[in-house]
Design brief:
heterotrimer; A mainly alpha; B mainly alpha; C mainly alpha; B: mainly alpha; 4 helices; 83% helix; C: mainly alpha; 2 domains; 9 helices; 0% strand; globular
């Protein structure tokens, strides 16, 4: 196993952990945290796999591939923007209904 | 060469286990405040991982955004969603009037 | 305005019951067998993904050589910046649009009401005086360094966003003169400059949209990065403030 494959596996583990948290937890802020963990895992898979060797011989590419890095960079900024929007929506939901979870228990 | 690579593997292993542990604790700790703080720590460790993978641009962005801005955003959301007893309810009252 | 009794009752109701409802949902409505089967399914998913990664071909396809071949005419010498602002400029332009849309979304669901805390402590009142100028300086350095080494508009912009958050936390209100169109202009600046220059080079003979001519590329990229940095910083701070001012 090479270093890129190792970190790609770690990234997938992060995605799976995040998915579990996303499904199991009801609190919306926790769901945001889970989504952020998932996106970190996806970025990790992307960057790690980009370090595989571009040609035979070397196990690991000498310089990092700039294209995935640029895409992950935009991805990180989009993720924080989405988080900000989601937080605004949750604060609004809390102000209007007093709840921080979704679901059909509106009449309690 | 061999010693260097085994040190590198040890570093990778330690970083990966810290990262996975922080992610798990972020999503499983019962207190939300602790979860957010753990998530900030997660972002910082992830920045170290980017540096390990020679993605320095991503590491810089992760430190500034993943740990800084997202952390501040989530902490302020937490302060608005679950104010401590007896104070800080003004915001919600203002919103009720809209 | 509202009697204090109502406020306390509301607090108990909203805070207490929402918490217990969430707890009941998390613990009661998802029984342990369902959790176990979710975990098993996700483990199977992980196994499948791991198999997929382990079976990837060894000489991996990559774009570093393609980038290295054309970096001379991109105007900058740092490959990531070249990809962001030259080779894949459409990505970055649309990403700035996404930021603006997110900010419009946040502004349309609520108004900003200070920045979380009620009154800033002595540390928050005085620390920004020291930190903010240094962070602005660091952002400027990162922006300039992005042309030849790691750094660039995104990192600098997020540092500026941090400056905005600090100023917001320190309780200094924005001057009234800035509240109207200057704020909206600051948010749109990156998109406006990027799109205008991109359309402008298309009007040149033999030009294409967002295809910078090699001899002017550095100046174009730096001015776009400057505008994008300001917009990113402002939008991140606005998202932190949480709504329309």
């Amino acid at each position: 196993m090479t270093q890129p494959v190792f970190w790609a596996l770690v990234g997938m583990a992060l995605v799976v952990i995040g998915l579990y948290g996303l499904i199991v937890h009801a609190h919306l802020l926790r769901k945001i945290l889970a989504l952020n963990v998932i996106s970190s895992g996806v970025f990790l898979v992307f960057i790690a796999l980009a370090r595989r060797a571009p040609r035979d011989g070397a196990a690991i590419s000498p310089g990092p591939d700039p294209v995935p890095q640029a895409m992950v960079l935009t991805g990180i900024v989009v993720a924080v923007a989405a988080t900000g929007l989601a937080v605004a929506l949750i604060v609004r939901l809390r102000a209007m209904t007093g709840r921080t979870t979704l679901g059909d228990e509106a009449d309690n | 060469m061999d010693a260097l690579s085994s040190i590198g593997w040890a570093l990778d292993g330690v970083l990966a286990s810290i990262l996975l542990w922080l992610a798990w604790r972020t999503l499983s700790s019962p207190a939300l405040f602790r979860a957010v703080v753990l998530f900030i720590a997660f972002g910082l460790v992830l920045a170290l991982v980017w540096a390990r993978l020679y993605a320095v641009d991503v590491a810089l962005a992760e430190v500034a955004i993943g740990a800084g801005v997202t952390g501040a955003l989530l902490l302020s959301a937490l302060a608005r969603l679950e104010p401590p007893m007896g104070r800080g309810r003004r915001g919600d009252k203002d919103d009720q009037e809209f | 305005m509202t009697p204090p009794g109502y406020r306390q009752g509301d607090g108990r109701n909203a805070g207490g019951q929402a918490e217990t409802a969430a707890g009941a949902r998390a613990r009661g409505q998802i029984p342990s067998w369902a959790r176990a089967s979710i975990a098993l399914l996700l483990l199977a998913l992980f196994g499948g993904l791991a198999l997929a990664v382990l079976s990837l071909s060894s000489p991996a396809p990559g774009l570093s050589e393609a980038v290295a071949a054309r970096i001379g005419e991109s105007g900058v010498s740092h490959p990531v910046t070249a990809v962001l602002l030259n080779f894949r400029a459409y990505d970055t332009l649309l990403e700035l649009v996404v930021l603006v849309v997110a900010m419009i979304g946040a502004w349309s669901v609520g108004t900003a009401r200070g920045c979380g805390g009620d009154t800033p402590g002595p540390l928050l009142r005085h620390l920004p005086r020291l930190l903010a100028p240094l962070m602005v300086l660091a952002a400027g350095y990162l922006l300039w360094a992005g042309a030849h080494s790691p750094g660039g508009a995104f990192q600098a912009g997020s540092l500026l966003g941090g400056v905005g958050i600090l100023l917001c936390l320190s309780g200094r209100p924005l001057p009234d003169g800035l509240l109207g169109w200057p704020l909206r202009l600051a948010a749109m600046l990156g998109v406006i400059v990027f799109a205008a220059l991109g359309a402008g080079v298309a009007a040149l003979p033999g030009g294409s949209p967002l295809g910078w001519p090699p001899d002017a590329a550095k100046a174009l990229i730096l001015s776009i990065e400057l505008a994008a940095m300001l917009s990113i910083g402002f939008i991140l701070a606005a998202l932190f403030a949480g709504g329309r001012p």
